[in-house]
Every structure is written in C-alpha cells, then in structure tokens.
Fold:
Amino acid sequence: MTDQFIGSLLPLFVAVPLLFAGVSVILRRRMLDRVLIIAVPVLVLAAAVALMVHHRDTPVLASAIGSYEGGIAIPFVSDTLTAVMLATTGLATAASCWFLTASGEDRLRFVPALALMLMSGVNGALLTGDLFNLFVFVEVMLLPSYALIAVTGTWRRLGISRMFVIVNLVTSAILVMGVGLVYGSAGTVNLAALAGRAGEDPQVALAVTVVLLALAIKAGVVPVHGWMPRAYPGTSAGIMALFSALHTKVALYAIFRIYFTAFAPGGAAGTAGSTVTTPAPHGTATTVAVVIAVVVLATMVLGALGSLGESRFRGVMAFQMIAGVGHILIGVAIASPAAVAAGLFYLIHHVVTMASLLTTAGAVEQTYGTGILGRLSGLLHRDRLAAVVVALGLLSLAGLPPTSGLWAKLGLALSVVDPEGGGGNPAWYAPVFLTAIVLASVATLVALQRLWGRSFAGEPLRMYRPVLADGSRDRGPEEAVPDSVRIPGRLLAPGVVMIGVSVLLFVFAGTLMPFIETAAAGLFETGPYVEAVLGGGIE
Amino acid sequence: MFDSTFVLAITVGVLTTAGVWLLQQRDMVRAIFGLTLISHSANLLLLASGVPGWRHEPLMDGTTAAEAADPLPQAFVLTAIVIAMATTILMLALAVIGRNDDQESAPTVSDNDQPDNRPDAQPDAQPDSQHESQPDDQAASLSRGQQGVDHA
Structure:
C-alpha cells in the first residue's frame, strides 16, 4: 500500500509551508527567514518533481482526509497535472522570494510568514478535489495577499490595496454562490462525483458556469480583467512576481480542472478507457463552449493591444499577463488533448518568463527609482546583463527563439489547426483562432519593441531617483545619475536564473513534453481520477 | 406561492442588490457594508441549496434521516461566515489606516512608482486640478482617477 502512504503525505504540501510560516513568526530571525522563504518553495519544487516521476506509474493519488469513505471525505488528489502545477508554482515562488530577500522587502513585518502562508493556500487549492474546499483554500491564498500588499505598499498605495481586496471579495462571493448552486443542482461538490454531470444536466452546467465565472475574474479573462492591470503594477515588483505566478495560475488550473471534469467536453477526442460516457452535448454546454471561445479570443487580442498603451514597464507586463491568460485558455476553448498540452506548456513558459521579467523590472526600479518608460532610457549601455535578460524575456513573450516562447506559441498554433483535435468544434475555430494568435503576436511585438526602445535602447540615462541616505526606503528628488551606479548583481540573479530556465525549456522541451501530454490526457480520461477519489464504489 | 423558497430567493436578490448599490459608493466603510450584505446573500443561497423548507436539526439521535436537514450546507455557511468575518475585520483595518477615506483623489502615477513609507507623507501634496474631485462626484472621480494613473 505504498501508494496509499504517498497519498497520505499529500497534505504535507499544505502543512509544511504553514508550519514554517508559524516558525518564522515565532522565532523572527532574519537569517532563518531568508533560508525558509527560499528553502520551502525549493522543497515543494523537489517534492513536486518527485511526484511527477511517481505519477508515471500511478496516474492518480488520492487521500481522503480523516479516512472517511469516498464521496463523503474531503479528498486531496494529485495527478500529473497537479504535480506539474506544484512544480511550476514552487519554482516561481522560489524566484520571487529570492528577489524579495535581495530587495530587502523580506525585512518588512511578517513578509516571509505571509509568503509561506500564501504558498500553503496555493498548494491546497491545487491539490483539493472538492469545490468548497477550493473556495476555502482560495481564501487562504487571498488573506496573506491582502496583508502582503498592505505591508509592502505605501500610504498612497492604499487605494490599490482596497481595490484588490474588494474585487477579490466580490469574486469570492460569486465563487461561493456558484459552489452553493452546484450543490443545489448536483447534490455534491466533490469534483470526482461531478465528473461529466455538467455535460448531462443543463442545470448543473449553469451552476458550474458561475464557478467558472468567478475563476475567470481571478484569472483576469477579458470582460472581467479590468482590475488586474490596475492592481498588479501598483504593488511592489517582488509581490507582483509572486502574485502573477500564483493567483492567476491557480485560477487557470482550476478552470482547466473543473471545466474538463464537469463538462467532459471533446467527446470525439476522448480516448479509450474513459469511463465517462459523453452523450451528445446539450444546448447549454454548447453555448458555454462558444462563450469560452469568444472570451478567449478577446482576451488574447485585447491583452496584447492593451500592453501597447501602457507607460510603465510593469504595466506592459500586466497586460501581457492577460494576453498570456488568453493563450493558455486556448486549451479550454479547443478542448483537444493537443491544445490542452500546448496550453499547459504555455502556462509553464509564461510563469517562468514573467518571473524573470518582473524581477528584472523590479531590479531596474530599485536601482534607478522609476519604472516609467519615459524616464528610463539607454540602460543597454549601462547594464549589459540586465539588457540580455530583458531581451531574452521579451523574445520569449513574443514567441521567438532561443526561448521557451517559440515552442509554446508554435504548439498552440499547431493544435489550433490540427484537423484531428477537437472533432466537435465549429469550422470557424481554426482560422479565427489562428488569426487571433497572429494578431496578438503582432501587437505584442510592437508593444515590446516600444518597451525596449523606451527603456533599454536610446540615449544614455541622465537622471535617476536614488534611495535617501537616511536608511529608509524613500526616494529623494531626481538627480544626475553617476557613472558608477549599476544594477546590483544580487537583484538581477533571480531574473537571470529564470530566463536560464526559459532557455533550458527551449532546449529540453522534449524531456518535459511527455509529462505535459500525460497531464493533458489525464483531463480527458477522468476514469482513473474518479476511481482514485471515490474508490470505484459510489456513483 | 409564498413558500419559504420564494422568500429566500427574494431575500437573496434584495441583499445582493443592496450590496451592489453600496459597493458603488466611493468610501470604504460603505463598500464594507455592501460586501457584508453580499456575503449574507451568499450564505442564504448556500442554505437554500440544501434545504428547500424548514427541517429538523441534523442530530444523530434527535431526528430520523428523513426529517433531518442537510448538514453540509450548514457547514458551508459556518465556514463562509468565519471567512467573511476575517475579511471584514481586515477591511475595517484598511478603512481606518491612512489619512483619509480615499475619497478625494485617486493615486497618480508617481504614487505607484516610488516606495514612500513615511506615515507623514503627503498623499495629496500635488493634487492635479483635473483629477481632484468633489465628494458628491464620487463615481466619476473613480474613473477619472484611474485614467490618471496612465496619463498623469
């Protein structure tokens, strides 16, 4: 029963970060905090990679907390997709926390403990197999986030912190209402017991759609994205890197998991061994699929176009995050195994690239006192390493070699035009999605060129706003920049490592792909998932 | 027709409407009241999802399974209430810190750009006359102020 034993270890992903958060609060040693804030995410990363390898033999691990029967228990479930997500978020958290220690933000009150609590909530949300428990873990994620924004922010940033709190609370209310509607219509909130139910019953389909709407707001999908490009650049760079790697990606994971489990779409693409019989989709499911397609198209194009109009480095990045969300959700819109695999690869690529670019943007802001594009210029002549990192990061976002972006975009484009995939999709999907990908790429390219031209290229930098000498983190007035001022290596290091990971993803994409394909296939064959959670008995 | 489900549905609707209306207000305390109403309506919705009418309390020895209410939505509501309480306290804390109730001007670009942790910093040191708003012009000031983030 070794699998059962490993399954019973799954709650440790939640418990260990939470435990060390407590340790950090009680002991309050700077060195200990520094070690914990980096070591715990690395530990999670290592455990997640071990889990990924283990899932090659055992597709799904489930642990019923308290040993209740399947169907009654609140399960923790892990399959390849969960493990991949745990590894990705663990890696990005480690990089962001590393940046927090380099920029000195970890010295602010309780920041290490809050970051670890956030991580604990993220891991719980990724592992839980129960919709209500998902809501609880999302709240566990959000509470430290509110505090993180408030602690690292300024008095003037309070308005942004308030907006973040209010938007997320309204979203949580929608989420919990959706969960209530799911319970009312389906009689269960256990994801495994919900498998295929939304595809059969329009009532359940509508209820699940409410849950998906709440998750879409959290992810920043276009008609409900407005809060994100306002809130995220208003936080500090390290916190924005942390949030962009965790909040949006957890919401995206939940959209993938819930949509594919509950609706069981893509019956034509379904593979042998699937225990969920897919009847002809009813009208509501078809409508939901079309709405998702339209929304995804809008997210891709408008996100990319929006980044054209931003005047700050991290503002551009925030809109690029929205464009990235659109690309990742192509997997949901097309609903073929190839598209889901491409979407997941894009997700990993996007997390890695964003972590690199955001921490580097933070390093620039920390050194020169501004992230406004009009006030930066010619950094290329001063900071060669930062220029290389940002250049590679921008290439990666645009989808050019030698970075992970190439395979990510290529995979999406190929999966969109693949005639085998997503057999039930309307005929207009392939040309329209391809056009949208191209449009978004062009807009992204223009926006990133503009970003590059206004920050790294151009006239050498003349003015900057140094940190005051009084030991506070305040900035003085603008003054001429001395030749000796350079971005310190310790601030750049996380960005360098993450862009290195992106290049590694470009070179070794073949090693990672089998895992991602297994993860994608797991979303379509819900049989093993259901059986592991419910023990094959109930339902 | 006026059975308990109907009353519950109407109550959920009224609470949500009132909550959304309060959320449109600029000051934080009203927004908090609005969110509280919305979370109440969510709780009622959760309760309604399990119990269409009045049932007996779900205690093992007190009632038979046929008469007992569904305990799961009640557990949901209990959890949701606890979470709502924690977030309400946090928001009330956000409402009292700072120098004003965020009613007069929205952050401009420099506000987001420079770390400025001094409690005595002047949030309204250079109020741009275009972005300055009258208290009775709250909704408009929100949109103008947000544009100000870009164009200031």
Q: What stands out?
A: The longest helix of chain A spans residues 337-368. DSSP finds 22 helices and four strands in chain A. Chain A touches chain B through 50 residues (CB under 8 Å).
